[in-house]
Amino acid sequence: MQKVLSLNNVFWRRHGDTILDDVTFEVNEGEQWAILGLNGAGKTSILDIIMGYNYPTSGSAKVIGTEFGAASLPEMRKKIGYVSSSLDKFHQTLNKETGLNIVLSGKFSSFGIYQDIDEDDFKRAKEIMRDLGLESLADRTYHTFSQGERRRILIGRALMASPELLILDEPCSGLDIRAREDVLKIVQRIPEEQRHLLYVTHHIEELTSAISHVLLIKDGKIVAAGPKREVLTSDLLSETYKTRVKVFFENDRPWLVVNDAEGNND
To answer: Where is each ABC transporter domain found (predicted)?
Structure first.
């Protein structure tokens, strides 16, 4: 089975502190993964390794056929779509852009269009916006969008380059319930588009049936990794979240209840 990415015995140290501690996991073709953990657990550090923004202090990494240290990481990044609430820091640049131009800019991984766009590019961008229910935003500028619309237009931008791997880093952060569900409807369709998804969050209720596998991380170490229902257990999540919790599934979607100190919710 072809591997989409693999991290083997990865350590990453910064200023003498071990941020990632012997991280090993792999994503195989056809699998859709989520990474769960508390804030500061190491989720973003794993993404920085996968994207090639940080090199492992020790261990090895291979992403979409690119072995770190043996091939061009900028070329690898062209095969990855990335959406994060951290992209909001580019709002001053985005504010003056229309929805259509933002989606189009995804072809070049830029904010703003500085290269020639052909008719096929326009056609693809409009198709993406139609598929994501964003047609009404085509001629509106970013500063008029709601938070949910902003997140969805950035997903459209990420899809413009037809990435093999789509990374969504807490895409529902700061969204209300309706906006969150609009984003999750898009997530649900990703596997149908013959691409792979890496979904990062600390809210298990965001893991729709599109997610097949889960990695749990705590304090830079992997707690568990594997098929969703095998990993999302009350015991493993209690360890990951450092809080006693109970997990149940409804419509193949997990939900979490925090147990009280006496365990009366068991």
So the answer is: 5-244
Which residues, 6 or more positions from 24, have their beta carbon under 8 angstroms from its beta carbon? 7, 8, 9, 10, 59, 222
Strand boundaries in 15-155, DSSP class E = 17-28, 33-36, 58-63, 66-67, 80-84
194 φ/ψ angles, rounded to the nearest 5 degrees: 60, 40
DSSP state of 203: -
**Contact of 204 with 254, CB cutoff 8 Å:** yes
Q: What's the whole-model pTM score?
A: 0.89
Mean pLDDT of the chain: 89
Q: In what order do the strands lie in the sheet with 165-169?
A: 80-84, 165-169, 196-201, 33-36, 213-218, 221-227
Dihedral in degrees, nearest 10, Cα atoms 180, 181, 183, 189: 150
Nearest-angstrom CA–CA distance, 5 and 155: 21
CB distance 198 to 20 below 8 Å: no
pLDDT above 80 (res 164): yes
Which residues does residue 257 pair with via DSSP β-bridges, in sequence order?
246
Q: What is the pLDDT of residue 86?
A: 67
pLDDT tens-place string over residues 61-104? 999 988 887 777 778 888 899 888 766 667 777 888 999 999 99
Positive or negative CA dihedral for 174, 143, 151, 84? negative
d(CA 25, CA 7): 5
| Tally of residues, the chain | 266
Rg for the chain, CA atoms, rounded: 19
Where do the domains of the chain lie, and which CATH numbers do they carry? 1-77+189-266 (3.40.50.300), 80-162 (3.40.50.300)
